[in-house]
Amino acid sequence: MVSKPEIPVQRLPREAYVSEEWLEREKKELFSKSWVFAGVVMDFPESGDYCTVQVGHHSLIVIKDGEGELKAYHNICRHRGTELLEGKGNSGRFIMCPYHNWVYDLGGGLRELPAAKACFPDMDKKGVSLLPASVGIFENLVFVNPEGGANFNSWLSGLDQIAWPHNIASDALEESPEDIIYELQCNWKVFAENALDGYHLAYLHKETLGGPLHDKNIWEAFGQHLVWWSTEREGVKHRIPQFVEKSSKGSGLKTVKGAEMPGYGGVYVLFPTTFITPNPWGFTVSTLEPLDANTTLMKVRNWAPKGWLSYSFRAKDIPGYDKASGLIKSSHWTKHPLETGDFQTEDIWVCEKMQRALQSPHHSVIFLAKGSGGEAALDFFQQRILDLMPL
Ligand code: FES
Ligand SMILES: [Fe+2]
Prior knowledge:
about 400 residues; alpha+beta; Naphthalene 1,2-dioxygenase Alpha Subunit, Chain A, domain 1; 4-stranded antiparallel sheet; binds fe (ii) ion
C-alpha cells in the first residue's frame, strides 16, 4: 500500500504543470529514460511491420526483424540524420532512407549506400548501424525506451505477478476498429494525478462510478507503478466499484472469461504515461502524450469479448467528438459534462478546470487527503518524477 509518508504533500511546484521550461526538462530528464507504450504484439504480424513512437524528443521505430523479434531504433539515419520512417506500415526487408537511399537491414546494420566507393572511400559499413533503443513485452503489450540496454524487468517490478486474466491476443477478445484520441486542455500530470486520486470518486463521480469512498479503495506500489483496488466488499480486493457492479447487473454485457473473479487490480498506472483498465467487460490501454505544457493527447485502445463490439468505444459516440479532426475535445461538448453519464468526461471537465486555475500565481496545493485511497498516490507519483529530475 502507498503508506509513506503518513501525511501526503504536494511536492511539485505550480510551474511543473504550466511551464514549457519544465516540460522541456521532463523531455530531457524523464522521458528520455522512460518506458512508453508503443502498441501490441498483434500490430506486428510480419517481418518489416513497424510503428513509430514519439517519446519526449525521441522519435523511435519499433520493427519486427527477419527472425520474428521486435527491435527498437532511433528513427534517425546515420548519414545526415533524416527521419527514416513515418506512422506505421511495413518496410519490407530493409529500411531505406528517402534522402540519399542508404539502406539498413532490419537488424539495424547499414547494408548498402549509393556510390559508396566514390563518395565514401574510407567507410567501413560494418561499423555503422541505427542507434538502438529498447523494447519490452508484457502481456502482449509492447513498450519502448529511448535508452539502449534499458532493463525492462526491473521496470516491471513484479507487476507480472499480479497481471490481469485478459489475454488480448486470444480469439476471445477483439479490438475496437478505431483508436480514440482525446485532446485534453491540461498538463499530462494533471490528468495522471486525477486518475490516482481516490478521494474524488464518491463526489465528482457520484452518478457514474458512485465511489468508492476514500477508505474503501487502495493504491499499492510496485516499483514506480501503482495498482488500484476497490475494498468495499469486506476488504476483498476487487477491480470495480460496487456501484458499477450493481448497475451493470442485468445490462446483458458480455464478460471476459475469468475476469469476474476478485484479485487482480482495476487500474494499473505504469509510470509514467500508461494507464490500463482491465475490467469484466473489456480491456483498455490509455496513454498520455504531452503536446505542450497545457495540452495533452490521450490515446485509447480498447478490447472487448468477440462479437461484442457494440459495447466498445466508437469515437462518434463519445461526448466532444469533433468530426473535422476526429479528436474528442471539450470545445465540442454539446451538453454539460455532469449530464453525460460518462466518468471520463467528468474527469476531463475537472482537469481542464484545474489547468485554468493553475495559470494563476495564487494557485497552490496545501492539503492532500491522507491514505492510499485518498491522495497519497499523488505524492508517490510526484516523488517518482522528482527521483529523475530533482528540484
Ligand atoms: S540522410 Fe539518410 S541517406 Fe542521407
Ligand atoms: Fe475520476
